[in-house]
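re: ur question from earlier - yeah i can do the single chain one, its not a big deal. heres the input i used so u can compare w yours
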Amino acid sequence: MAQELLVAICAAAIAVGVLVVGDRVRPKSWRQNSDESSSHLALDLAKTIFTAVLAFVFVACWNQNQNAYNHTITESKGLVDTHLAIHAMPGPDQQRIHDKVLAYTDEVLTTEWPVMERESRLSESTGKTLDSLRDAVVSVRSTDPIVIEARARALAGIDRVTQARHDRAIDAARTVPQFLYIALCFGAALVLLNPVLTGMQVTRRSLAMTALLGIVIGSSLLAIHDLERPFSGVLGIPKDAFTYAQSQYEQGSIGPVTHNE
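and the output i got, formated as C-alpha cells:
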C-alpha cells in the first residue's frame, strides 16, 4: 500500500513539474485566459479511470463468482460419484459410507454455509466429517476385484471433493485488492464532485441528474461488494449443487451385494 501511495505522489509531482516548466518555455500565445480547460481535463480523466477500474473489478469479481460456483458443482459431483461407487461394496460398508456422505453434505448446507457467509471461511467440524468419510472408504477390505475397483472409484471421488473444497476455501476468503477499492472510492468522489467543480447551477434538473448519478455509483459499488463475497449477499452463490446431490442419494438405493469375498 505504501508503494502505491508513493507512486501516486511522485506522479502528481511530475505532472505539476511538467506543467510549471512547460508554462515557462511555451509561447505566450498558447496560454488560455481561464483554467476551465484544466478542470475539464482532470474531471474527464477521473471519470474515464473510474469507469475503467469499475468495469475491470466487476468483470474480475464476476469471473471469480463463476469459478466459485463451478467449484461447488465439482464438489457435489465428487460426492455423487462416491455414493454411486459404494453400491458394489458389502452391505455394512455401504451403509456406513452412505451415512457419512449424507452427513458431510448436510453439514456443508447447514453448518459450513452459514460460517462462509458470516466469516468467509470453512467449518473445521465439516472438514473432520470429510476426513472420517475418507477413513471409512480406506478401511474397506476385500479381495473381490469389483469391491476393490469400487473402493478406488470412491477414493477418486473423495479426492475431487477435497480439491474442490480447498478451492472453495480460497473462494470464500478472496477479496478485492485494497488499492482497487481506494481507486474506486477516489474516482467516485471525483465524479460526484464534478458538478461542484464545473460550476453547475443548482436547479431541479441538475438535482435530479446528480441524484441519478449517485444512485448509479452507489449501486455499482454495492454490486462489487456483493460479488466480492461469493457465498453471501444478494448475489451469493446458490446451494443447488449440494441439494441436487442430496436428491441423488435418495434416488440411489443401497443394499447388500452378493459378490464373494
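The CA atoms of residues 22 and 32 lie 14 Å apart. not sure if urs matches, ping me
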